[in-house]
Amino acid sequence: MQLSHLAMHRNVLLFALVAFLSLVSAHQALGTNVDLSTPVFELTDPNLHIENETDVAIVVMGATGSGKTTFINLASGSNLRVGGGLKSTTSMIQVAEPFILDGRKVTLIDTPGFDDTTKSDTDILRMIGLFLATTYRGGKKLAGVIYVHRISDFKMGGISTRNFRMFRELCGDSTLKNVVIVTNMWDHVSTDVGEAREAELAREDFFFRPVLEKGAQMVRHENTRDSAHTILRRIIQNHPLSLQIQRELVDENKDISQTAAGAELNKELMLQMEKHKKEMKHLQKDMEAAIRSKDEETKRELEIAAKKLQDEMNRIQADAQKLASKYEKEKADMEDRMKQFADQSRRDAEEAARNHERQMQALRDQISSMEDDDDDDFFPTLFKLATRVILGGLL
Ligand SMILES: Nc1nc2c(ncn2[C@@H]2O[C@H](COP(=O)(O)OP(=O)(O)OP(=O)(O)O)[C@@H](O)[C@H]2O)c(=O)[nH]1
Ligand SMILES: [Mg+2]
């Protein structure tokens, strides 16, 4: 086609260019061009990307190393850090990038387990409590909660049962219909063994039976994106509900140590303390025997063991006291951060709007000056203008 012929349609092209550049510019002004591969730590953001009624937020819980982050990455296409060794990997709450599933914007929230190797259980409870209370206070409810359990676990040991007890106290009974227990790592067991364990988990009062009877579901995850999405489809249509700890902390204005989860944790800490006290009594008896028999080496070993035990008891004691006192301070800090966050967001939005208007005005000026130019100059100028704006947007 001749250049001169194309020039006849320049008004149409101008209109298309302005529309396109407006879109590029508006997109940048709104800041929606996020890098999906970047982990996002957004404790300060109470909105959880819930802007419409159809937007959903789902929290993922479970023991350390159970596969919470792997599940979230698979489902959302995020790249949050996954563990490989014995240490806990996720020791903060992480909010994954939202993604679209069946036309709904879904945000998954990753949490650390209660047996974290780098943080105490009280630290974890304060962190989760603060996050859930802050989002709930901001008017955001969760569409569901996922609890991840490894079917490959030889038995449901102390750590798993403790995690699950804490999970139950966080959720409360009335939210259980929005709870999905996800069993994973099926590739680590034969089908027979996996199915037998699954049946036992569903049958025993000590395991998942009480929650399944109250409306929770248990489903298998096959470690694929499709499987993760199939599981999420069970949740995204839910009517969002508040969790027990949200009601306790926000509606009832309870101190965190008075919540059911806080009381459960305190009970656990007291049980540990009782156990350690008994161990200490045994050590003291052995020490007396070693002194009587002048066995210096045994006495030294027992002294070291007693010192370790005493340190552990001091830690538990301090932990129990820290739960209430630190929560109040963190809550005040969080409210402060939230206010700063809201102020900053407002300033950013105003600045973006001003920039947007400036760019659009410059564009309108350039286009009207082009309209006065000769046809011969039109396409080179149009090309230069488009290149400048697109490059300007990318840089
Ligand atoms: N075979 C198999 N491995 C899995 C599956 N899910 C997770 N893993 C592996 O299990 C390990 C722990 O997974 P993570 O996703 O880091 O577990 P997590 O629950 O987030 O762990 P923390 O952040 O430490 O609490 C990693 O090596 C994963 O690759 C699964 O469904 N099948
Ligand atoms: Mg993790």
UniProtKB/TrEMBL annotation:
Residues 58-115 form the G domain. Keywords: Signal. This is G domain-containing protein. One of its GO terms (molecular function) is GTP binding. Residues 340-360 are annotated as: Disordered. InterPro entries: GTP-bd, P-loop_NTPase. Pfam families: MMR_HSR1. Residues 340-359 have a biased composition (Basic and acidic residues). Residues 1-26 form the signal peptide.
